[in-house]
Amino acid sequence: MFLVDAHNHLQDERLIPVVNAIVAECHRIGVRRAVVNGTHPRDWGRVSDLAAQYDWMLPSFGVHPWYVEDLAPEYLSILEQYLDARPSVIGEIGIDYWKEGCDRARQEEVFLAQLRIARERELPVTIHGLKAWGRLYDILRSHGVSSRGFLLHSYSGPLELVEQFADLGAYFSVAPSFFSPRRARQLEVFRRVPLERILPETDAPDQAPPIDRDLYYPFAPCGKEINHPGNIEMVYAGLTELCGIGREELESRLKDNFARLFGDVVM
Predict the structure, then answer these.
(1) Cα–Cα distance for residue pair 73/57, rounded to 1 Å
(2) In DSSP terms, which residues pair with 5 in a beta bridge?
(3) Count H helices, E strands: the chain?
(4) Which own/partner pairs from 244-247 qualify as long-range (CB within 8 Å, at least 24 positions apart)?
(5) C-beta of residue 204 within 8 angstroms of C-beta of residue 229
(6) Buried b (16+ CB within 10 A) or exposed e, 201-233
(7) 0.90 surpassed by pTM
(8) How many Å apart are CA 136 and CA 153, to the nearest integer?
């Protein structure tokens, strides 16, 4: 088996106490590549340390749109230092109009600055978007993206924008929570996404699957039930059903997709 997880947060403080056990379990079920996404300079060190310890983890450094307001003035130079230190990519970055109280102008300023670095370095990017898909498309179209392409992680936008984003170089990832009945509408969008543009993710420790499909329920190392990274297996099972193809073919196709987006960085 060769499973890939295109987006997680193994550096999250909720997972740190049991990260060695998580790594062992992921290896047991066949996870061979994973992108570990930072969210702020304060967690980039943990991301880097994980990548140094486990060569199948690709570090990704970026400022999440929820955390743009408490950045040190030199955050971009710090970002470039991390990018210089080891093979890595940029993310999780983006814009979010769902979360109340966020400064939208500041979000866009920080997002554009990180996109510029991705273009200059020709690095793939992982992008977060919520309730801002039209604006996000306009930004990417007008300012340009890295020639390597980008991942719209846990894509929850409209079907009408899938082709337009794909023309700009987008891939679209599916998280465990998409297999909950409450997200059935969004999962239906993925029936229309070309298979060569789909990637699996866990977003662990967030976006847990519904209880009846959660392979690790209950998992609560921090005292609160959270998503185990091993639920990537559940995403593969769900995509096998959704795409109507055999498991072996699905693994091969998703491995190829991962290699096209992140390949010469990590494969």
Answers:
(1) 29
(2) 34
(3) 9, 8
(4) 245/195
(5) yes
(6) bbbbbbbbbbeebbbbbebebeeebbbbbbbbb
(7) yes
(8) 13
Q: How far apart are the first and last CA of the chain?
A: 16
**Cα 79 from chain centroid (whole Å):** 18
Domains and CATH numbers, the chain: 3-266 (3.20.20.140)
Residue in this structure with the two tokens 């702020």, named with its chain if needed: 40
Q: Strand, helix or coil at 165?
A: helix
- How far does CA 259 lie from the centroid of its chain? 15
pLDDT tens sequence for the chain (267 residues):
999 999 999 999 999 999 999 999 999 999 999 999 999 999 999 999 999 999 999 999 999 999 999 999 999 999 999 999 999 999 999 999 998 888 999 999 999 999 999 999 999 999 999 999 999 999 999 999 999 999 999 999 999 999 999 999 999 999 999 999 999 999 999 999 999 999 999 999 999 999 999 999 999 999 999 999 999 999 999 999 999 999 999 999 999 999 999 986 544
Two structure tokens written together for 36: 């570990």
Q: Is the preceding peptide bond at 218 cis, omega within 30 degrees of 0? A: yes
What burial class does residue 93 get, using C-beta atoms within 10 Å of its C-beta: 0-12 exposed, 13-18 middle, 19+ buried? buried
What residue has token string 């991705």?
118
Amino acid of residue 263: G
